[in-house]
Amino acid sequence: MTKYTVTFLPDNKTVDIDSNITLLEAAGKAGVIINSLCGGDGLCGECRLQVKKGKAMADKNAISFFSKDEIEHGYVLACRTKVEDNLVVNIPLKSRVEQEKILMEGTAFAYGEPEKLVLHRSSHEPVFSLDPIVKKVYLELPVPTLEDNISDIDRITRELHKVSNYDKFETSLPCLQNLTEKLRSHHWKVTVTFARRNGVGRILQIEGGDTSDKHYGLAVDVGTTTVVVQLINLKTGKIIGVKGSHNLQVRYGEDVVSRMIFACIRGSLAPVHQAVIANINNLAHALAEENHVSLQDITAIVAAGNTIMSHFLLNMTPCSIRLEPYVPTTTVYPQIFAREVGIAINPEGILEVSPSIASYVGGDIVAGVLACGMADKPEIRCLIDIGTNGEIVIGNNEWLVCCSASAGPAFEGGGARNGMRATGGAIEKIEINDGQVSYQTIGKIKPRGICGSGLIDLIYELVRNNLIEQHGKFNESVKTNRLIKADGELRYILAYPDETETGQAISISESEIANLIKSKGAVFAAIKSLVDYVGLNFAQLETIYVAGGFGSSLNIPKAIGIGLIPDIDTKRIQFIGNSSLTGARMSLTSIPAFENSLKIARRMTNIELSNYAPFMNEFIAALFLPHTDAGLFPSVKYLR
Amino acid sequence: MTKYTVTFLPDNKTVDIDSNITLLEAAGKAGVIINSLCGGDGLCGECRLQVKKGKAMADKNAISFFSKDEIEHGYVLACRTKVEDNLVVNIPLKSRVEQEKILMEGTAFAYGEPEKLVLHRSSHEPVFSLDPIVKKVYLELPVPTLEDNISDIDRITRELHKVSNYDKFETSLPCLQNLTEKLRSHHWKVTVTFARRNGVGRILQIEGGDTSDKHYGLAVDVGTTTVVVQLINLKTGKIIGVKGSHNLQVRYGEDVVSRMIFACIRGSLAPVHQAVIANINNLAHALAEENHVSLQDITAIVAAGNTIMSHFLLNMTPCSIRLEPYVPTTTVYPQIFAREVGIAINPEGILEVSPSIASYVGGDIVAGVLACGMADKPEIRCLIDIGTNGEIVIGNNEWLVCCSASAGPAFEGGGARNGMRATGGAIEKIEINDGQVSYQTIGKIKPRGICGSGLIDLIYELVRNNLIEQHGKFNESVKTNRLIKADGELRYILAYPDETETGQAISISESEIANLIKSKGAVFAAIKSLVDYVGLNFAQLETIYVAGGFGSSLNIPKAIGIGLIPDIDTKRIQFIGNSSLTGARMSLTSIPAFENSLKIARRMTNIELSNYAPFMNEFIAALFLPHTDAGLFPSVKYLR
What we know:
The structure is a homodimer of 640-residue chains. Chain A has 640 residues and is of the alpha/beta class. In chain A, 25% of the residues lie in helices and 25% in strands. In chain A, the strands form 7 sheets. A 6-stranded mixed sheet of chain A has the order 14-13-12-15-17-16, sandwiched between helices. Chain A has a 6-stranded mixed sheet with strand order 28-27-18-19-20-29. In chain A, strand 19 (389-395) and strand 20 form a beta hairpin. Chain A is globular, with a radius of gyration of 27 Å. Chain A starts with a strand and ends in a 19-residue tail after the last helix. The model of chain A is unreliable at 98-122 (pLDDT under 50). Chains A and B meet through helix 3, helix 4 and helix 5 of A and helix 3, helix 4 and helix 5 of B.
């Protein structure tokens, strides 16, 4: 087999490969991450590369993704281009997966004094006592005598009974195997680390001396796009550090469906599993090093993610989730040793995964319900978590119903030529007044594209300025030189080539607007269907919590203006940021919170929208700005 | 370092070794097992070898174990002889650890019809339902639909709830990881194997199709001398096969104390642990092959052994058991995967170990109490299990007390020049009438030595014939040509050189008789102390059960005659054979029985005799044949 060398610019990473593999696969081997929404199907046009040296032919079907100029300048789709020469290729800005603005909570819990430890962040969050899922207790044991010669482990559990409320303890075999020397060489002073399983205290580790100060855990949000890890001091409940990174699974597809297709059909499960494990290990390692914490002293992890991500995390086949009737392997995950999936904390450390409800309503939403506290009070509230999937929960302390709708990648910057994720250079805020466009980018640098919140602003401003009609078509009667025809379609120019970092215009087309309207329509239809299903109207929702990847810079009135979010008093709408991570941390630091999450998962009724007839009507009615029923959006000002 | 070759006869096994190791160590490397009571301390004189070629010097301290003739013929102690030449050595019959008559139950449980399955063997055994600790259930699951799309594992447990009485199930991660394909490729027909832990059903294995017929377990008696394994059909409860072999740990010492010294001081724990694992694997493999059972279909083991053997089995340091205040690591052993200790059954198969009471009252005695049913009824009964340790239990369904006394190796054939274990060629029955000696050997072959039951008979016959006094000294006034002086001591000749296989006389000396009296004295003193402790007398014991390594051929009246067993009506004394193995099998095949063993262990009060003042007085009073208080043995006929 012929061998070729491929060098990827601008990082100058080189890899030697056999012929007959694609540039996207070569990038994977080189450790270079290229955007790929569709998982290598040639459908999304995200993995564009520019061939600088060597011969490479763009696949015929891929040509439609490029302008004539781009094709002349050597642009190809990485997934559709076989390597048949030694190549030097450049990864354009848009195709790079770079350090993004990752949604992380900024604020730590405020803990009270040890006597009355409570978790408390803001008004909406429920209060739980500090009672971590793994505990570490220092014991000074009485020395055995002939009158008191119970076994070594009974001597330990006799003391543990005094300081904990377990009726029974069980001990792992490794803990027992060298216990005798440990107790005696440390003069009967030991520190015991124990978790809880099935109501029994599970002794994980017995260390000589007093190590109870070194007691750490990780809260992990396993997002489809981003993985965020918090390092928590389990003695105090305080957040020590937080780090996030791109989900390395992106090389197997940008959305969960593409990754499932890779895991189940095109490739295999193992690399997808290993990618997210690498994420967690990298982040945990960096956090530990930065904060002078030993990975050995981390003995507990709670991870929250959607059902598919949870399956990937645990290396469980997700292959029946994708197809009707959408069945996951499990919704309640077993307590395992973190080492069983290759996470490099203390080998006796445990991993708990936030329970899911159904295939498309995951542990992230359960964690979100936990975090906002809506399941604890009689007032009826609503949680909307918008990502590639929009997940909706309505309920109170007596009932909870939820549903999920595929919003598509539009709000995460996919499906549009200039769409991008909320990272440096993304246009996040837009205003158009009297034909004048003003915008703001993340990082206050030259724009590279438009992220989700920017797209919402853009749609809102276009319709407010009468540049598009309420059904999303351009109003060609309005005079503006920003509306041009390119590659056979009308496009509205948001930023001219001289304004942008790429030197190419940033614009939006009619079909891209149509995609966004479909996305917002799906989310709103899901909310409306669920509200109708439970026999309520929007006015009866005491609070709407908005969470998710674009929530941090979302303009709520504009989101209402395009009909994404119900039109209620904006004072009753709260951002709760990364509620999945908050919920994971709550479960990590408080057994009552973790138990609450299991109760939430059991209590919540999932409405399968694909099986719920009114949803399609609601969806069609929502394909309008803001909605075909203007009465639903009384506050929207541009309505004529 | 110089290299030498040592060949061991008669098996002709050769090993190349470095200099500076002993012949005993060389034998270990060659896989040749040589008797060693003291674990290589040069104290027991059991590891005698005859050097046939090459030069080897007997250690000066070892000379006392040999006659002049033997030294001239090249006899050495393997443990005291460094290899400093190429050698050919012969292992004399007495030093060989050969296939012995291993105590195994002959009878199977008689099971009733499936509707009312009971375990029943004989009148004394309690009745338990067939309810094995690991179950295998075939399920035909309904195919999921949009209306019924619960997770795959919930679909399984929903059916399991209908056929079992667990409120909750937990599933191992490996079971979940490939569950999706398994269910679908087998058209929703699967067989689930599950155990019980902490009241929760623990799913161990999910197989495609109906494999519920292939459902096996092992009951294991981990004896100090012998390891016995029974293969059980867990669907029917029937015994399929049974095999026993020498405990391979014998190379590290014949008794538990020597093995602890090897594990903790002289050598290390690992080889002692691995030896008993090799025993179990060899026996399981042989049983499986012979009965056309796959090791993969064995998913449960219950093992019973003394506390030290249980520690060795689980690779737990036994080092504090040996020294005052005699503390074990644990008395209740965790349910583990058999693979965790290297036992090669199904990798998801579990191992349970019968719970112990204290360092010197082990799971074998708990299994014995379970097997004889004494803990279930109001009548007060006594269990005497005699091995290297004598273990005594008295009690009923309301109370149980136990104790343990070091009987020494006398009844297992140790500590006497012609003592041997109950194997082929051992004299097991003796009568002396009018100076005429008659005996019977195991296997009806030429005698090689005397085993425990033979020694009891011998002592009884010697005192009955007035050949020894009641304090154990030879009565030199009785005329017999069998009483001779050899190597400075009086010896009674039981078999002349021409009668024996070795061509050397089989005899007993005064000091060896003194040892036996000490052993029987310790056992009886323990029984008497315990009976006194609970404020009873022997007449109040409804039944005495006798179990242990020499029980199969024990002459009860003679055992009473020497004062080993209390003098009650022999109709009230029952042999129950290997009660440890019976109890292990009961626990394997019946959860109620296993739970009963845990209750027995919790209920039983251990009296530490080394800490109990009256014991020493009882011991001294028992150093007489049958006892200094003749009133305790009214039926003994030779009493004058």
